[in-house]
Amino acid sequence: MGGDANAFKAYDLLVTQPVSVKDLPERERAGIVVSAVTDMNGRNHTLSTFGDAIWDFRPYFEQSNVADGQKYIPWPEDCTNHMVNDCKAVLYAWYKRGLPGSKPPVAMGICQTAIASAIPLMRWLMSLNVHRFDQVKPIHVANYVHHTKSRLVRNASSVYDGLRILDFLWVFRDETSFPLADCPWGTSSLWRISGLGKQAGRNEVGKTPIIPTDAQAQVFNYCEQILASAPDILNQRDVGQLGLRNPALIAIRDAALYVLSITSGMRNEEAIGVESGSWRSERRDGVEYHWVATTEHKTGKGKVEFLIPELTIRVLELMSRYAQPPKEQLVREIEDMERQTDPHGLTDRLLQIAKAKRNAKKLFLCTSISGQRESTRYHIDALTNGGAKVAFRRLAKAAGTSWLLSPHQCRRTYARTIVESRMGRASLVFLKWQFKHSSMSMTQLYASNPMQDASLFDEVLAEMADFKIDLIESWLGDQPLSGGAGRAIQRVRAVTLASRHALLAETASYVHIRATGHGWCLAQEKGCGGAGLYEASRCVDCRNAVIDESFADVWQGIYQQQRELLAIDDAGPAVRQRAERDVQWAHQVMKDLGLLAESSKFTKTGIDNG
How far apart are alpha carbons 486 and 96 in whole angstroms? Predict the structure, then answer.
């Protein structure tokens, strides 16, 4: 099963191709090789040329979770050659040279831009009887921006991606036969036109949803049950009682993928890319760390490591056993394809061999018929992003939740859960393991292993900013507040603000907010020195304290506990005096939060409702 999967990429042929199609004769331009493969004897086989109706980029996708069907560009036959050739020219230039000041994109970037941006734009212009890009007027661009924003309502990033071909047509206008007459954005930019430039410090509409806590609990508990029973299921498989497509086996793989994703913060492509034996444990300064390595493709970092809890190590070891039979079948498939000498279908066979070798060490495998010459025969493949989406929906349904669970929700949920835990809103066991002890900062954690994915820490910090913005915004709403600072906030709610969102983003950037377990502390340099953590009543009238509705249950509990102390006859005068004071403070908080009727008044024996 030896050999390098990259050996099939005909880089020597591609490097000899021109980096620009400008001024080339039609026949020469049409014959430029866009993609090719090399066979075991070193002979090149062209997959796509510039003039082809379909560009095949299958050899150049490194991501494990991308289906073969997403690796082609089917240039539209219902659009004019003038527009198609100009779109091809600018995307080819981008692919070869990159944008000024940046490196060339990966194959996925080219395919996604063509499918999500170039083809929709050409078809929209055709519907207006516009057949060339030099016929595009500012009014066309303005209307298409409006059309795109109404079609892609999810978020500004989708709008940016949908409009991007216009940016390329302008930047690479010298490559086109019929260049745009004017910059599509005038004196502005795509960044601002799409709405991305307006979102500093704010959640964008339609941002990846966070998995609700109750849904997390249901799915995680269900996964634990599935994984607990996995050894018995695998024993049955190993003695021939279960086939590779048995639902019980598929459930083990789905559960393991969710646990890995939600406890590491990996993107789906990184989780699917995890290979056998890619995890390790180390002890440093008396603290045990667990790491799993994978390859990060989105920003081109290459090999990165993610911190995981011990339970995820056990899940990966279980998956190593799970994946053994499919991997053995994959080895047989590779050997069978390499023995074939029929020149018919050689190019496709070379691509299948290269892909199979890339997947030979993967853990999250499936049976598939995609890309097969014999469409009724299943073969072993890495789970795709689409397959993972189906798996997560199936998992959520089996767990008894109606939440539409999706793989891309796990990374943001992981980041948000860290923030919630740090801010006193949640305390999950796997996060306690992740951060090892309460005093470990994000900086210390990142410094413990420079191979970590820094962008995950950036997302945690972004979630922290969003959390603080949402919290402050809730205080400026109409919910009742208590605490010295809380009552002050209520008094300034009537002040008119030119931009509420701008104020929130600016405020959140420098306001320190800490959870005390019974309220929020805004103290910067001076304060109680932490005494309020242990003596809740100190926060009620403190000018740095905000107590909102999220702590209502806590204060009702404090009030009830102190009343029970008052009911003890032989507690002594000091205890009784302290209890009377704390009952009074708890009563004040409950009144501020609207938990008591206005007519209620405090007495030394409790609440008198008149």
Answer: 58
Same domain? For 318 and 399 the reply is: yes
- For the whole model, what pTM was predicted? 0.71
Count of domains for the chain:
3
Asked if 585 contacts 602 with a C-beta cutoff of 8 angstroms, the reply is no
**Residue tagged 């989708």 (tokens):** 158
Task: For residue 69, tell me if it sits in a domain.
Answer: yes
Nearest C-alpha neighbor of 582 from the set 596, 566, 593: 566
- Shared domain for 73 and 186, answered yes or no, is yes
Segments forming the whole domain that contains residue 337: 213-278+310-429
Name 292's bridge partners: 279, 306
pLDDT in tens, 183-201: 999 988 998 888 876 544 4
In the predicted model, is pLDDT for residue 66 greater than 50?
A: yes
Looking at the structure, tell me whether residues 148 and 186 fall in a common domain: yes
As a whole number of angstroms, the distance between CA 169 and CA 167 comes to 5
Q: What is the reported pLDDT for 374?
A: 47
User: Beta strands of 187-345 (E only): which ranges?
Assistant: 279-284, 287-296, 302-307
Nearest Cα residue to 518 out of 540, 483, 480, 551: 551
* d(C-alpha 36, C-alpha 59), whole Å: 8
CA distance 339 to 128: 54
- 222's enclosing H/E stretch is helix 213-228
Question: Is the residue at 491 inside a domain?
Answer: yes
Which residues is 601 bridged to in the sheet?
Answer: 608
Residues of 14-35 as b/e, b for ≥16 C-beta within 10 angstroms?
beebeebbeeeeeeebeebbbb
In this structure, are residues 271 and 417 in contact, taking their beta carbons and an 8 Å threshold?
Answer: no
Beta strands in 485-540 (DSSP E): 514-515, 520-521
Starting at the earlier edge strand, list the strands of the sheet with 279-284: 279-284, 287-296, 302-307
One domain for residues 355 and 501: no
